[in-house]
Specification:
Blueprint (H helix, E strand, L loop, with lengths): L1 H7 L12 H12 L2 H28 L5 H26 L1
Helix pairs in contact: 3-4
């Protein structure tokens, strides 16, 4: 039984198959999509996104001069902190 288990399981790191790029991306996405991680990163994105929108676009929006580009910028104010907080999450994972 011990011989069979030893033969089936790799004993050295060189016996392990290298992880492909797709598997790494899939693993990273799955890690970021965990409920506790999503709660944290979405909360960060909402808070930072609102602050950035108020700082950068409040005058344009309040003045009634908001264009489609203004609203795209407002959306990016939420996307960028979400991506950055996930990158930090993955960086801290190592």
């Amino acid at each position: 039984m011990v011989i069979l288990a030893t033969a089936l399981s790799p004993s050295t790191p060189s016996d392990l198959a290298p992880i492909g790029r797709r598997e790494r991306v899939r693993d990273a996405c799955a890690y970021c999509a965990r409920r506790q991680n999503l709660r944290r990163t979405i909360r960060i994105a909402l808070i930072v996104g609102v602050v950035l929108t108020v700082i950068n676009q409040s005058g344009v929006i309040a003045g009634g001069d908001a264009t489609t580009l203004t609203w795209v910028r407002c959306g990016l104010n939420f996307v960028v902190p979400f991506v950055v907080s996930n990158a930090g999450l993955l960086g801290g994972r190592r």
